[in-house]
């Protein structure tokens, strides 16, 4: 395994020039708000078309939380979008393993594709309400522990608060 470099960018993930962009999707794979909406808007209809085909062939019951699957990146400056479903945060149940699984499974799919550069958003920290500091800890620890041939994992944080939470973890 090559060593993976973790980098941080504050900005819009749909503007990244990388091999694969990870989408914080929902299990329907049919799009939504937040980063999911932005990726489908800028990537164009080819992404949704492949998502529909995946639903018809493999994910009739939806993509389970913590799993990942790739489609074309359409008009984005990337070759693939890797869709993963983050858990909704719960105060009563520890779902950290599911959030960690999103990062691990996305990197596994990236390896299968031969992607060398992969951009991640802060999965589950928007609509799914995961506290940023904890999400950043899980993201960074999981990527560091996962054996992968990906050379650069770029965390793309939309706002300053998210950027600072990840920066504190990466050091
Ligand atoms: N680039 C980078 N990060 C972004 C962008 C962007 N263009 N837009 C938003 N973020 P969310 P979730 C950040 O809600 O919590 C959708 O409806 C945002 O500030 O997109 O995993 C799906 O269909 C936040 O820090 O994803 C699902 O139903 C982070 O991305 C559900 O939301 C994640 O926020 C998934 O919820």
TrEMBL record:
InterPro entries documented for this protein: Macro_dom (IPR002589), Macro_dom-like (IPR043472)
Any Pfam family: Macro
Occurrences of domain Macro (ranges): 1-171
NCBIfam families (alphabetical): PRK00431.1-6
Official protein name in the record: O-acetyl-ADP-ribose deacetylase
Organism: Streptomyces thermoalcalitolerans
């Amino acid at each position: 395994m090559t060593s993976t470099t973790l980098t941080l960018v504050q900005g819009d993930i749909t503007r990244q020039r990388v091999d694969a962009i990870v989408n914080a999707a929902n299990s329907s794979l049919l799009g939504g708000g937040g980063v999911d909406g932005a990726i489908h808007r800028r990537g164009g209809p080819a992404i949704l078309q492949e998502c529909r085909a995946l639903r018809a062939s493999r994910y009739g019951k939806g993509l389970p939380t913590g799993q990942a699957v790739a489609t074309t990146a359409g008009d984005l400056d990337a070759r693939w979008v890797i869709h993963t479903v983050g858990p909704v945060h719960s105060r009563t149940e520890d779902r950290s393993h599911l959030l960690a699984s999103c990062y691990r499974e996305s990197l596994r799919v990236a390896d299968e594709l031969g992607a060398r550069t992969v951009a991640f958003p802060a999965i589950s920290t928007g609509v799914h309400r995961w506290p940023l500091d904890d999400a950043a800890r899980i993201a960074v620890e999981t990527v560091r522990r996962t054996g992968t041939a990906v050379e650069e994992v770029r965390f793309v944080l939309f706002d300053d608060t998210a950027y600072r939470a990840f920066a504190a973890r990466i050091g």
